[in-house]
Design goal:
This protein is of the alpha/beta class. The protein contains 14 helices and 15 strands. The strands form 2 sheets. Strands 1, 2, 3, 4, 5, 6, 7, 8 and 9 form a 9-stranded mixed β-sheet that branches. The structure holds adenosine-5'-triphosphate (ATP) and magnesium ion (MG).
């Protein structure tokens, strides 16, 4: 008897003619996620099966697959011959611990027979298996409405599979099924969550971070690298672009109206991010902004920021409260790193009285006080790329 992982996928069923493409992509993503264990991944009739995982690695592999977008749920199954005896023995073995220790030992059998050559119908399998389990473990009880333990048998072309229960997957669509976008990542709580949410829709991510040595430290940079790594556990490989921003930032503080510095900084970040994105195949920018969270995120400020670029800007957190974002960050495992103390270049020089209702024309004028073009080109030329995975 071998333990295999049985993977269910949902949304890609909806994609009609694209379905084979999505399925192949999902198989690739599963293989990448399981790279260290060299499992074999096979597709069969609306399911994906992962064979050849050493038993001690099953929990780790399950954990890894729970972060692969496009997976609806998965089960750890016994893979057996398509004989009644093998199926029965596997079900008895799978149920043993539960029967011996569950405070409410209720179960129900489910069967799915996609190989119609198998001599028993689904109903017969359920009925017979129910009898066998009750005989093996007299303390078990059948509960057809709310069983604690579902015992499922699937008869497929290749093999039969027996499992008890399922683990929810990450949902969404396989990364790479919906193009690429550039995440503006700071060291805060929001932007990693924003990246996660867009990657979940099948979008491959690149990321860009602006730092201001010596006003921001090496530690702040390491933190962003670590956060990008945490996002890449879901999003796969990410190119992280680290852009030196000190000269532009200092010039803004020197030469532009002090109430507008934050919004101007944001416009320049967007411009640089857009250029790197265009050169590297990203079709949109992603930020962690939400309406009204800070002065630079009022609707007026967001309009002024958008005015700096032509690319669409995706803001998946736009309607979220901070508590909701924090909850999500905790769930995906970025929160603890995000709250480590650090300096962000946005927070180093916060104006005392930032404009909350900036006007596009006025901001364009302020920006035109300085010729930023050579500084933008220099920052891009000095940008460092890191391959995060
Ligand atoms: P976060 O938790 O993401 O830092 P925040 O509430 O602190 O969000 P701001 O600092 O105003 O928000 O930044 C808004 C968004 O701008 C961030 O979510 C991020 O997408 C982008 N951003 C801010 N600072 C940087 C930076 N240094 N490098 C790249 N992107 C940045
Ligand atoms: Mg921030």
């Amino acid at each position: 008897m071998e333990k295999v992982l049985l993977v269910r996928y949902a949304e890609i069923h909806l994609k009609g003619l694209n379905r084979p493409f999505f399925e192949r992509l999902l198989v690739d993503r599963i293989k990448q996620a399981l790279m260290p264990v060299r499992a074999s991944v096979e597709r069969e009739q609306g399911r994906i099966f992962v064979y050849g995982i050493p038993e001690e690695n099953i929990p780790e592999c399950t954990d890894r697959l729970c972060r692969v977008f496009g997976i609806h749920s998965l089960s750890i199954a016994q893979c057996v011959d398509k004989s009644w005896e093998a199926i029965r023995d596997a079900a008895i073995a799978e149920t043993k611990t539960f029967a011996e220790s569950a405070p409410v030992p209720t179960f129900k059998c489910f069967a799915r027979r996609s190989d119609k050559r198998f001599p028993m119908t689904s109903e017969e399998i359920c009925r017979e298996l129910g009898h066998e389990l009750l005989e093996a473990y007299p303390n078990l009880r059948v509960d057809v409405h709310h069983p604690v333990l579902p015992v499922t048998v699937e008869i497929r072309q290749s093999n039969a599979f027996v499992y008890t229960g399922e683990v929810p997957g990450a949902g969404g669509m396989p990364v790479g099924s919906n193009g690429k976008a550039m995440l503006l990542i700071s060291g805060g709580i929001d932007s990693p969550v924003a990246g996660y949410m867009i990657a979940k829709r099948g979008v491959m991510l690149d990321a860009v971070h602006f730092y201001s040595y010596p006003y921001t430290s090496e530690r702040a940079r390491d933190k962003v690298i670590e956060l990008t790594k945490l996002v890449s556990r879901y999003a796969g490989r990410i190119n992280l672009y680290l852009v030196p921003f000190t000269e532009i930032q200092m010039t803004i503080y020197d030469k532009c109206p002090s109430t507008e510095t934050t919004v101007l900084m944001r416009r320049l970040m967007m411009k640089i991010a857009e250029r790197i994105a265009a050169d590297t195949g990203s079709l949109a920018l992603i930020t962690g902004e939400s309406i009204g969270q800070v002065a630079s995120q009022t609707i007026e400020s967001l309009c002024v920021t958008d005015d700096a670029v032509h690319m669409p800007v995706f803001r998946p957190l736009i309607g979220f409260d901070k508590e909701e974002i924090i909850e999500k960050a905790q769930k995906i495992g970025t929160f603890e790193t995000s709250i480590l103390p650090y300096e962000d270049c946005c927070t180093v020089f916060v104006p005392k009285h930032p404009v909350t209702k900036p006007k596009v024309d006025k901001l364009r004028e302020s920006e035109a006080l300085v010729d930023f073009e050579p500084m933008i080109e220099k920052a891009i030329a000095e940008t460092e790329r890191m391959d995060i995975c």
